[in-house]
């Protein structure tokens, strides 16, 4: 492969036939010039991004090389932990995000993540990858990123999974779940323990319920006798569940079927107990 354009010491655009590709590897383009041949042994990653190709090229020229290397290391680690490839867009999104976060901390700014508690529960494996990433940043650059940033990285990793919703939908659902948890806490006048199994099961259930609504998928139907029993036996929790359903309908035009209100009631009742 011959170099068409050098992006930095570790990345270049090459022409493979008539197709432009971005290739990356340690020192791959160091002291090279246009039309020089890159040995295949030096190439670790090849990208063909089509419409995003130009954006990725610009990013690789703007962002410090050590930030690019860190982002690629995190992506490789994430794919190994998840045992699945991530979408190509993660190379743009995470590199850009991580570099900006590092620069903000170096300039004395704080990083906050108001959805951190929900992210820890809903995207546990991704959050662990985020924690690994901030440890790696500290190790390589001496920059201490807060736990909040591990949450941001977790969302980027989650939305890059090939079967996941995009970032907008993920943030929307996580925000909604946070609002619903606050409603339950206010309704019962208590603070929920984020470490409890019941809390984690509720968040997971709400996440899948919201995804079903978003994808217009069918919900599990509850037996009418069971639903009546729940309404009667757990009337206080049921009213809370109804309040949640009304809120979703009014604020987000998301309508839970009555059976789903019953299932949520059971989760709320376990929390109350």
Q: TL;DR?
A:
This protein is of the alpha+beta class.
Strand line-up of the largest beta sheet: 1-2-3-4
Number of domains: 3
Order of helices and strands: EEEEHHHHHHHHHHH
Distance between the termini: 65 Å
User: How much is the radius of gyration in Å?
Assistant: 23 Å
Mean pLDDT: 90
Number of β-strand runs = 4
- List the uncertain runs: none
Quaternary state reads: single chain
Classify the secondary structure makeup into a structural class. alpha+beta
Strand content: 5-15%
Question: How would you sum up the global shape?
Answer: elongated
**Corresponding CATH superfamily of the largest domain:** PRD domain
CATH hierarchy class name of the largest domain? Mainly Alpha
How helix-rich are the residues, as a percent range? 55-70%
Q: What would CATH call the architecture of the largest domain?
A: Orthogonal Bundle
Outline the secondary-structure elements:
Elements: E1 2-8, E2 11-16, E3 19-24, E4 45-47, H1 53-62, H2 65-82, H3 90-106, H4 116-122, H5 124-141, H6 147-160, H7 167-188, H8 197-215, H9 224-233, H10 235-252, H11 258-272
Antiparallel strand pairs: 1-2, 2-3, 3-4
Helix pairs in contact: 2-3, 2-5, 3-6, 4-5, 5-6, 7-8, 8-11, 9-11, 10-11
Description:
With 273 residues, this protein is α+β, with helices and mostly antiparallel strands. The protein folds into three domains: 50 residues, Roll (Transcription Regulation, Sacy, Chain A), CATH 2.30.24.10; 96 residues, PTS-regulatory domain, PRD (Orthogonal Bundle), CATH 1.10.1790; 92 residues, PTS-regulatory domain, PRD. Helices cover 62% and strands 8% of the residues. The chain is built from eleven helices and four strands; from the N terminus they run ββββααααααααααα. The chain has a four-stranded antiparallel sheet. Helix 5 crosses helix 6.
């Amino acid at each position: 492969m011959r170099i068409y354009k050098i992006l930095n010491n570790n990345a270049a655009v090459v022409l493979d036939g008539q197709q432009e590709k971005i290739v990356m590897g340690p020192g791959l383009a160091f002291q090279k010039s246009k039309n020089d041949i890159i040995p295949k042994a030096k190439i670790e990653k090849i990208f063909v991004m089509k419409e995003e190709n130009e954006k990725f090229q610009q990013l690789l020229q703007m962002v410090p090389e050590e930030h690019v290397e860190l982002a690629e290391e995190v992506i490789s680690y994430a794919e190994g932990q998840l045992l699945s490839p991530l979408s190509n867009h993660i190379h743009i999104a995470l590199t850009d995000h991580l570099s900006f976060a590092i620069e903000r901390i170096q300039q004395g700014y704080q990083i906050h993540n108001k959805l951190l508690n929900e992210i820890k529960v809903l995207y546990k494996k991704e959050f662990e990858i985020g924690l690994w990433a901030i440890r790696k940043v500290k190790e390589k650059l001496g920059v201490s990123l807060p736990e909040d940033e591990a949450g941001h990285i977790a969302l980027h990793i989650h939305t890059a999974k090939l079967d996941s919703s995009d970032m907008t939908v993920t943030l929307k659902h996580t925000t909604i779940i946070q609002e619903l948890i606050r409603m339950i806490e206010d309704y019962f006048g208590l603070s929920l323990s984020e470490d409890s199994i019941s809390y984690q099961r509720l968040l997971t259930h709400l996440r899948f319920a919201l995804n079903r609504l978003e994808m217009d998928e069918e919900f599990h139907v509850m037996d009418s006798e069971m639903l009546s029993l729940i309404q009667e036996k757990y009337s206080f929790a049921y009213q809370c569940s109804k309040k949640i359903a009304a809120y979703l309908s009014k604020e987000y035009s998301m309508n839970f079927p009555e059976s789903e209100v019953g299932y949520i009631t059971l989760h709320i009742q376990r929390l109350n107990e």
